[in-house]
Specification:
Layout (H helix, E strand, L loop, with lengths): L6 H9 L16 H10 L12 H15 L6 H22 L6 E3 L9 H7 L16 H4 L35 H7 L10 E3 L18 H17 L12 H7 L11 H10 L2 E2 L15 H4 L6 E2 L6 E2 L5 H8 L4 E5 L3 H4 L1 E6 L10 E9 L4 E5 L11 E5 L14 E3 L11
Parallel strand pairs: 7-10
Antiparallel strand pairs: 1-7, 2-8, 3-4, 5-11, 6-8, 6-11, 8-9, 9-10
Length: about 425
């Protein structure tokens, strides 16, 4: 009796004919045009005037509960979740029916979570992760190099100074763009118009962080996995699965499930190592560091060749030049529309630049003016776990995504994984 699996609505659904199951909470659209048609004909429980259909919404909620095996301790909790579910369905209908938006939304595992619940359970605590006042540790500050690719025996900083660190307010939009592009060894005209590391088979499978604000560790791990695949051309993505839990429990200077710094995590892999997932499985908790798991046998861990590169802020072309070499970690401000994102080019209007999430840029397309990003909310969110975010020109970027960006070393000091 203590657990109610959305029983009020689900019991009716189970006793009725199977045809009554209503899965219209989930968008099936593959294009914005299809999403518009779907919104006008389906309505997600609302008619074109915005009037709710309670019977339909209850059927949809019951099916959603069944799909995700959701349970609630009390009737009051279930009713509160249903209220949020209805509000989110209305937001989905409004967004999907709006032809001025190039993206569309869908019910997903987060469809009965408010933005506040989502922030507390999935995103980083930005009262702890204050990037505005973040001061890198010594290993961070020593590096602003080019990932050991210049033959300087791993000293990425020969004759160079640190620039563009989080909190450095001297870096204003566009005033350093030519210099920074020169530091990457590429001119803007040499940067490809399209990069897709997923299509190139250099990105590992999408993972799911669950109810733990460990995105920073997942983003850092995904970046290192991609760097490893680029450095080892014959290795397949399915053969590379590094342990996020090691970073969450062992990397200093971060806050585990409350958030953390991807650059510190990658510098930890430079200083120590990162073992494989099977040796240090993900626990969805912060946990404590287990030395016996960190001390991995040869071929069961990777170690980066040099420390992390921090990209200069606010320059779209600079970011492109680095993504052309390998995927890049970035920080982002998630709002409720991104929580329910399903497809298209995301161009938000309500988010701020106060970040609460970390992800990985795995490509870009200058024709459609979009970034391709890898998230850590599982393969059923967004475009099979990915999203496209609009390029908006120099400045803070969509939801602050041009402020804090990092790329790991593209070389390794460890022997190949086996």
């Amino acid at each position: 009796m203590a657990r109610l699996a959305c029983l009020g609505a689900l019991l009716v659904l189970l006793l009725a004919a199977p045809a009554l199951a209503d899965r219209s909470w989930r968008s099936q659209a593959q294009t914005k045009g299809e999403a518009i048609v779907e919104a006008l004909t389906n309505g997600y429980g609302y008619d074109q005037k915005g009037q709710q259909n309670d019977v339909k919404l209850k059927d949809m909620f019951a099916d959603w509960c069944s799909e995700y095996q959701m349970t609630y301790a009390t009737t009051q909790e279930e009713q509160a979740a249903f209220k949020i579910f209805k509000q989110n369905m209305k937001a989905i209908q409004d967004t999907n029916a709006d032809p001025s938006k190039d993206y569309w939304l869908s019910g997903n595992a987060f469809a009965a979570m408010s933005a506040q619940d989502f922030q507390s359970k999935v995103l980083m605590d930005n009262s702890l992760i204050d990037m505005e006042s973040y001061v890198p540790d010594a290993s961070d500050a020593s590096n602003n190099g080019n990932n050991g690719n210049d033959g300087n025996n791993g000293n990425d900083n020969a004759g160079r100074t640190s620039r563009g660190r989080p909190g450095d307010r001297r870096m204003l939009r566009g005033d350093y763009e030519g210099e920074e592009l020169q530091s990457t060894g590429r001119k803007l005209s040499q940067i490809p118009s399209v990069i897709d590391w997923v299509a190139a088979n250099k990105v590992t499978a999408v993972k799911n962080q669950g109810s733990c604000g460990s995105c920073w560790a997942f983003a850092a791990t995904a970046a290192i996995e991609s760097a490893y695949l680029i450095a080892n051309p014959t290795v397949q993505p399915s053969a590379v699965d590094l342990a996020e839990q090691q970073l969450i429990s062992c990397s200093s200077g971060s806050f585990g499930c409350n958030g953390g710094y991807s650059d510190k995590a990658m510098n930890y892999v430079y200083s120590v190592n990162q073992t494989i997932e099977s040796r240090y499985p993900y626990s969805f908790t912060t946990g404590t560091c287990t030395a016996s798991k960190v001390a991995s046998p040869t071929g069961k861990a990777v170690k980066l060749y040099s420390t992390t590169t921090t990209l200069a802020k606010y320059s779209e072309s600079t970011i492109m030049s680095y993504v052309a070499k390998a995927p890049v970690v970035f920080y982002f401000m998630v709002d409720s529309s991104f929580q329910l994102y399903k497809g298209g080019i995301y161009a938000p209007t309500t988010c701020t630049t106060r970040i609460n999430h970390a992800m990985l840029i795995v490509g870009y397309n200058t024709v459609e003016r979009s970034w391709k990003i890898k998230n850590s909310w599982g393969p059923y969110w967004g475009e099979s776990g990915y999203a496209r975010i609009k390029m908006v020109g120099n400045g803070y970027g969509a939801c602050g995504m041009y402020q804090y960006l990092y790329q790991p070393s593209l070389k390794f000091r460890s022997v190949p994984l086996s």
